[in-house]
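Researcher: Structure prediction, please.
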Amino acid sequence: MEHTQDHQSASHNRNKWLALFVIALAQLMIVLDASIVNIALPSAEKALSISTGNRQWVITAYTLSFGGLLLLGGRIADYVGRKKIFVIGLLGFAASSALGGFALNGPMLFAARALQGGFGAVMAPAALSLITVTFTEPKERATAFGVYGGIAGGGAAIGLIVGGVLTQYASWRWCLFVNTPVAILTAIAAIVIVKESKAEGNTKYDVPGAVLATLGLVSLVYGFTVASTNGWGSASTILYIITALVLLAGFIYYESNVSSNPLLPMRIILDKNRGASYLVSLAAGIGMFGAFLFLTFYFQGVLNYSALKAGFAFLPFSAGIILAAGAASKILPKTGPRPLMALGFLAGSGGLLWMSQIGLHTDFFIHVMPSEIVMSMGMGFAFVSLSSTALVGVSHHDAGVASATLNTSQQIGGTLGTALLNTIAANATRNYIGKNFANQTVVLNGTIHGFSVGFLVGAFCLLVASIISVVMISDPHKDKSLRVSSSEVMLAST
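Model: Predicted structure follows.
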């Protein structure tokens, strides 16, 4: 009898780690897709005769649907079943990726990207909440979040390499086609390996809340996007952002005072640690985009790297963040999240500050690579702690929506970062060139100056994330409420 129980326990543990592999593969695909398409964009633009003004929609169509539908996707996963929605999301992602690969014109590609974002919005929170309810023992959960954090941080850089290889040696279309077989195989594996879980009790949908949140987030994301082209003071930018603020304020009021079964229960964000994690995630999203956005332009536009070489130039970042995430998963149970988050974001800020010193003839191995490593190591430690803190203590009933809120804060931060840092860098470049006689060297130096200013703003955002971590994140070794919450979530999960 005891032998049978031991065998069942070993089998259960093995299945948990196989499930993590399947979930991690899906998360990697979502993260890869964001950066892999960036490398393919110039080729797609030329092949489909997409205008310069419209090319942003290859990225924005995905961002809008992904960011706008995440909260609803999290609740759908909670109520319908996280495994079921995870599989549906994977199959939908596979189909929409194939549609994009076969695109005959710009609008068809934009529509496929919007569909990808929509299916990603139901898949991503389902994946993260499955980790939350599968790994309930603190050390195991820390390891699982270490894997997730490494993928979330390093996947984007890996995507640049994969995108460079596919674009240079196959076709830009394969940057989309590659998702289809991976997603289908992952869905089959999930059906066999992943265990179903869903919220119990009251599972009625909050339709008005879903409409207010989705329209508010879409308006906010679109307002940030418009700002990058029309400027922050344009009438269209102001209109979209004001509309977003009104809708989101209405959403918070409705959730707090009207809805009997809210889409985003205020207990999710009013928890001190979880609310702080969402703020930190927002600030980190803004700062992180500075590194990828400006380094990509610097490698290809200033140093004249090919798409493939530029992708490989991000390898130190990938290696650093994966190594740090692995180490963080072992350290986290001993130290708690606060020191890892605070020091990690501080190191990330220092790395961006170092990057801001780039010049026209900066040596990659002496200057750029070390700054990448410092930043990536810091972010690896921070991301694992962030993911864990944002979800620890959340009830089984709310796991999906808590995961979705974390993803939403990252997505909004990244979108704001793209618009904000790009606008700041462009203005800095224009001002630099305007003060000097415009020849080729001055233009290049002005471009680099804009990147440097963007890096500095990104460094400030990561510094803010570090300060929030120190001030607002509790130490679980000292905070009784956090220890109780951890035990509660273990009880709810079992």
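Model: The chain has a mean pLDDT of 82.
Researcher: Thanks, that helps.
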